[in-house]
Design a protein that fits this description.
Blueprint: H1 15-34, E1 40-49, E2 55-66, E3 70-72, H2 74-83, H3 87-102, E4 110-114, H4 117-120, H5 125-136, E5 143-148, H6 151-168, E6 172-178, H7 186-190, E7 195-198, H8 200-207, H9 211-226, E8 230-233, H10 239-248, E9 252-254, H11 264-269
Parallel strand pairs: 2-4, 4-5, 5-6, 6-7, 7-8, 8-9
Antiparallel strand pairs: 1-2, 1-9, 2-3
Helix pairs in contact: 3-5, 5-6, 8-9, 8-10
The structure holds ligand C2E and magnesium ion (MG) (3 copies).
One magnesium ion binds at residues 177, 199-200, 234.
């Protein structure tokens, strides 16, 4: 397509800008083949109960190591995948893989999968969720979809309809990075999220005694409580952050303090002493 050719615009030549565009073009090219080349993998980060510290779920996080470009951070390639809509097939791979891997964790442990607005606007997305659950045998209540406020900015109605269909299956839907988007609170009236994830910036601020951050976390927790939604604090790294967040009443904690994102095998090993880890990968209900 001629999208990058500037449509007859006359621009002054800027080497830095050009290098940036060129890098993007190369990454995009590499990304078009990354799925078939098996360059993607998932890592899983634990989310623990704020009181009992027991692992409730893992968030699946996508990693890409390109044969041509090496490791590329999600902060770089996710936006590119969204712009090019490659996030639709890539996101489907994430969803299917996460369900297939999570089905072998101890039964109550859930998996959370990040989903972009672009995916929610895809008319087949809800059916992809149905299919991923059926193919893996993962019970719907063990899958949580994570979305950000940004999905309500563009085409809120379509996104909402898709999410409602997914909720009707029994899956949870979490609102990610809460407080960093631009949308109004109006959609909280229409949609029953299972969890609100308080962005790490507020966690950090609260632990530094920043009065605005403290007030915001307190208000989000109170609001979530009265709307019967749970809360997760994102990016808890230190004992101090943990204590402050606990005191503020967040229900769940995620962050380097309890665990970094790890490969599936390591995640499974976390449960070695848990008693519930199946010895063999039998379908549910067939074990003695
Ligand atoms: P997110 O969904 O908010 O995920 C949390 C990010 O915070 C992850 O970064 C995680 O590694 C990082 N994190 C967790 N605990 C801590 C902590 O204690 N301190 C710090 N500094 N960081 C922490 P990651 O894996 O680089 O992912 C970045 C973002 O990329 C994600 O933010 C999500 O928006 C997006 N992303 C990742 N995987 C996927 C995916 O499969 N699909 C889509 N659509 N987006 C994804
Ligand atoms: Mg997330
Ligand atoms: Mg987040
Ligand atoms: Mg965040």
């Amino acid at each position: 397509r001629s999208k990058d050719e500037g449509g007859g615009q006359h621009c002054t030549y800027e080497p830095a800008l050009h290098a940036h565009a060129e890098e993007r073009r190369q990454l995009e090219f590499a990304m078009r083949h990354a799925l078939e080349r098996g360059e993607f993998s998932l890592v899983y980060q634990p989310v623990v109960d704020a009181t009992s510290e027991e692992v409730l779920s893992f968030e699946a996080l996508l990693r890409w190591t390109s044969a041509d470009h090496g490791f590329i951070s999600p902060a770089k390639f996710i936006p590119l995948a969204e712009d090019t809509r490659l996030i639709v097939p890539i996101g489907e791979w994430v969803l299917r893989t996460a369900c297939l891997e999570a089905v072998n964790w101890p039964a109550p442990v859930k998996v959370a999968v990040n989903v972009s607005g672009e995916q929610l606007l895809d008319p087949y997305f809800a059916e992809t969720v149905v299919s991923a659950l059926a193919q893996s045998g993962l019970p719907p209540h063990r899958l949580e979809i994570e979305v950000t406020e940004s999905i309500f900015v563009r085409d809120g109605t379509t996104a909402q309809a898709t999410l409602e269909r997914i909720m009707s299956l029994g899956c949870g839907v979490a609102l990610d990075d809460f407080g960093t988007g631009y949308s109004s609170l109006g959609y909280l009236r229409k949609m029953r999220f299972s969890t609100i994830k308080v962005d790490r910036s507020f966690v950090q601020g609260a632990a530094k005694d920043n009065p605005e951050s403290l007030a915001i976390v307190r208000a989000v927790v109170a609001m979530a409580d009265s709307l019967e939604m749970s809360t997760t604090a994102e990016g808890v790294e230190t004992e101090l952050e943990l204590e402050v967040i606990r005191r503020l009443g967040c229900k769940k904690i995620q962050g380097y303090y309890f665990g970094r994102p790890m490969p599936n095998l390591e995640a499974r090993n976390l449960f070695a002493g848990y008693g519930a880890l199946p010895q063999q990968e039998l379908p549910q209900g067939t074990a003695a």
